[in-house]
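Technical appendix A lists one of the benchmark inputs used to test multi-chain prediction within the project. The record comprises three sequence entries:
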Amino acid sequence: MLHYLLKKLLFTAITLWVASMVIFALLEIVPGDPAQLMLGINASADAVAALREQMGLDLPLPVRYGAWIGGLLQGDFGVSYTYSVPVSELVGERLWVSLPLAIMALVLSTVIAIPVGLYSASRRGTRTDTGIMAFTQLGIAIPNFWFALLMVYLFAIWLQWVPAGGFPGWDQGLFKGLKSLILPAIALALPQAAILSRVTRSALLDVMGEDYIRTARAKGLTARAVLWRHALRNALIPVLTILGLQFAFLLAGTIIIENVFYLPGLGRLIFQAISQRDLIVVESVVILLVATVIFINLLVDLTYALVDPRLRQGTGRNAS
Amino acid sequence: MSAPVIEQLDAPETWRDVAKKALHNRSFLTGLIITTVILALAIISFFWTPWSITELDILLKLKKPSLEHWFGTDHFGRDIFSMIMIGARNSIAVALVAVGIGVLFGVPIGCWAAAKGGYADEVLMRTNDVIFAFPALLSAVMITAIFGPGAINAILAIGIFNIPVFARISRGAALSIWPREFIMAAEVAGKGKIRITAEHILPNMINLLLVQGTIQFSLGILAEAGLSYVGLGTQPPMSSWGRMLNEAQTMMSFAPHMAIFPGLAIVVTVLGLNLLGDGLRDVLDPRLRRER
Amino acid sequence: MTLLTIRKLNLTIGDTPILNDVSFSIDAGETLGLVGESGSGKSMTALAIMQLMPRASQTSGSILFNGEELLDFDERKMCDLRGDDIGMVFQEPMTALNPVKSIGEQVSEGIRLHTGANRADAEMRAAKMLDRVGLPPSRFPLNRYPHELSGGQRQRVVIAIACALNPKLLIADEPTTALDVTLQAQILDLLNELVAENNMGLLLISHDLAVVTEMASKIVVLRHGEVKEAGETAKVLKEQNHPYTRQLAEASTHVPTRKTTPVTAKKAIEQGTKPLLSVKDLIREYPTPRRSLFQKGIPFRAVDQLSLDLYPGHSLGLVGESGCGKSTLARAILGLERPNGGHIIFNEIDFATASDAEIKRARRDIQVVFQDPYGSFNPRHKVARLVAEPLHLVDAMSEQEKRDRVAKVLVETGLATSDMDKYAHEFSGGQRQRIAIARALITEPKLIIADEPVSALDVSIRAQVLDLLVDLQDRLGLAYLFISHDLSVVRAITDDVLVMNQGKIVERGPTAEVFDNPGDEYTRKLVNAAPDLERAIMKRLETI
């Protein structure tokens, strides 16, 4: 277990490090001088040079990378070129919209998908199963932002049950905040739930063909008991994999969905930053999101070990 | 992480057998018809559209769907059906090139890793993990932030994300073929790894790649729509389904048809491709199994 | 009292008939052997008794268990019966256990289900049962997981699950086919003991006539879903009334006739013949996974300073259990693995020092036949291309020359020239093995390495392929390195034998001498454990 844990932690650290270098390097090749950008085209050369020095732009590349990473580790993301406030402040505020949204969507999609997948697998080949699978086929094909638009039209414009968009802020009360996130969360969750329930179903059906399922049946377990007690836990491994990938998609998806609902999240921030060429903000948001994805992958890997004893003992998967 | 693995290799059937199976496969047929229609619309749009979309007629703006304008008109008075036809070109081109990038780089990388094994394999798969940490949208955001928005950058972002997908799938498939006895027989015959890969490994994973290609194609269409919707993809005056939805958003309350039809176009296309992929899987039967 | 009576059992899956009027009965405390080749329907019979057939199966006839008609039972009543009154053991111990549940959980699950015992009581009973099958809790605690156990140990767990509640009937479907002979003997002994202790009925399903003869007092011979012969094992096998029974028994003990005089190492040395292949102090190591982040694994020696000599026209057997390194040795000789030490010298060319061109030329003279008649061909190539593949080692040759050569070897192996333009899947297992032999012959080699070439074949086909191999040796003067775990096959076809254990040769000599009077302890263990039909029949006759 310790071996597995250490190995995974090491890989996570390396992945993070490489990802940070990629992001840093990409933004280095951007045409244009941030100092010039901040001061405007009419600024004097002296002023630009002074600002460059103040921002540390004249230092060699590795030093700047070191300073950047060092800052990040202490929660210092630098200062926004356009707003002239610490990026951490900007990001911190928006994170409390995007992260709850992504988590809500993930929970929602899991809560819907796994029971649906189980139900469908247990009724394999019946009309119910075929119906559910046709429905999920449709679900996969629907772009979440279009689904969001339709929901806005239906629930906000037509039925007027919920606000069409915007976010009151958490200080207006938990309920109000959640209420404004519920439509976006559903829009994000349903297409993902369609994928996840298909994966759950097919993983279960795969497992149901294994020899040990027959052993369990020969023990006297009913088909349903076998599904719950033996198949589900084994089927969880591919399901977890998809779940991990989905969180990355959901996080990226929030960027788009926030646009539909006018939510002040990281997505809105990043698009404003792009249009204003506020690269340090772009850089910070991207590294934050990438780090979250990498961290989630680590969590998934650790959950594998909980599910599968073969990993726990660190004997590796090919030991058996 | 799981990768599909070829469980059993089957002899190629004759084209007639495959065609016969295909004709009896409902999801393949439906998918094929939908995909063909969309493709045809895209091709026809090069020569003819019901209305010109470059001539703006403000008098015709925001018309509801009618016999004249099947899907209605937009806020500039342009015919939405015609715009969808032209948008199809764009979606198909972006997704196709992105799949091409994925196959062109991913498959050789995956095959190489499987043949080489050891550290090369490990480094490669870890690099894959790094790329996987950047969802297509996020890399598109970065690329756009650096090079500015545009269809080419959208293709790049989606294509880059496709590389690890194909690398992983071909590596998994190749790894499951390498230990077979017929590979050993080829090695005994003194054939090298490249030659064995070309003669024995690749032909046996073609079906798998075809199925995965269809899936990535449909994902590419969804991704392009998303990027164009937030303004990072196709730029005006080029028409694109995602952009149409973007423009429709502010007019949702009084012209919902502007959002409904381009969205439906995406849904139908993606659905068609997914059905085609499912059907292909049944027809070609690459005997997939999830590796744990 | 009759425990199980099957009368006129018919089973179809979809439109395909699987079983046709199968009838037999088992008494309490009795072992009945059900033998048949692949596709005879023997496993389906077992699944029909358990009512665990695949979808779209339909049965008719009667299965009376303890006086009750199982075909009339509903699913709930069958669930009560399964694991309680009827236990079942399967073929594949590696996959028969749930990888994410501990062995304690898996054994006690059935106990709790059927007796309603609480967890502690059930686990106590499970521990006792595991102890009984030879997995004492002191060494195999209940919280062990299947992947921590070997194949033999896993099969013991499966038996513990099946016998946990002292079933009246135990069904064992090829319970030892996936195991090495010494383990097979142990597991069969265990089954015998359990039958005697609990007065169980045992339905033993096997393709191996020798195993069934050793174990079962009654035998049922099944072919194409029909009972060909049934009765007392001793009587059936002594009289061999039915032609199929006779065919089966003969094929199981078939010894091909040689027309030329065998070459033995002793004679070759006396005559001063130079060895064709000489392996000297060969070492092949595999790295093992790191023991921890900072500690490298100790390399595993699959082949440990092994030496052997093989002469022209020689037929040399190599026997040993799985993991003893025999396949690694074969791969090293074939150049598929790079040795960590020692020399492989073929026709006086040392592969360690020779030039690439020399090695390439030498490789033409060494060809191989693998075990799996299904996996050894690229399914996308036609026979002509499959068989011609080793010609890669021969200098440029026109397509027509290649086709002529393919035609020649196909005829030589008993196939038709017209088979050239077919795919491998159009042939049966035995014919595919002929194609594999044709492929090995195409470079006109001097040595063929045969790695378990008949292990995957049914006995009647096995006999034909052995005949072909011997015939080719007679006509072409081939030398064989014949690798097998099956002593009876090695005895039938080889002149000299090497017994391999843990990477080393523990005994060598003329085959008959070594097997009849083993000098080494491991060889003795191996020979005693190996099922032998003639010996088993003799024993059966004595006990009457």
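The radius of gyration of chain A is 24 Å. The longest helix of chain A spans residues 223-261. Comparable benchmark entries are summarised in Table A2.
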